[in-house]
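Pinned message: reference record for CMP/dCMP-type deaminase domain-containing protein
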Amino acid sequence: MSSISTPTSPPTSPMPPTDPAPALENDNETPKDWMELALSKAEDSLRAGEVPVGCLFIYKNEVIATGNNTVNETKNATRHAEINCIDNVMKFCEKNNLNYQDVFRELDVVVTVEPCVMCAAALHELEIRSIVYGCPNDRFGGCGSVFDVSSLYKYKVDVTSGINAERAMKLLKEFYQGANPNVPLEKMNKKRKKNKKEAGIIKEPVQSPVVS
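Predicted structure (tokens):
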């Protein structure tokens, strides 16, 4: 994946596929506790005019990376919260002289919305331990809503859904019901006009018949 920088140390030999440990098995914090923090990151995204998705990467009961969507800011459609977190974990590994493969295998990912197919595939490629998400992603979900990415992999990631789903969905609705400040005004006006036409608010003018 192009967004992941090359590690300074060579990777170890791939380990044989194994079942991951249960999500947050011995942690002091619960998935709901972690989700509260992820939701606060999603609220930051909403205030910044980004799709409100917040994400945490947890390693040995410590948050080592947080992420928001920065698609509008960067004008890069791949800069989802999970991808930004992956980049931050790579920096964490380089700074602490850790093997990135070993770290990812012990990671729990907490994200407010079901990862899209792209992000779910990236997380499976890295063989993370678990994914905990809030509301489903009915348009792009890669954990079963649209496509189950896990069907492509022998290594199975533990997935838990529905944690604070209502709050996560509420943030999404607030974003899509409001005006995205990063969308060009001309494009926004066209979309509004189209929506009004579809709703029957604006009707095309009817031409009068020509009398010969």
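Pinned by admin. Summary line: Confidence is low (pLDDT under 50) at residues 1-23, 198-203.
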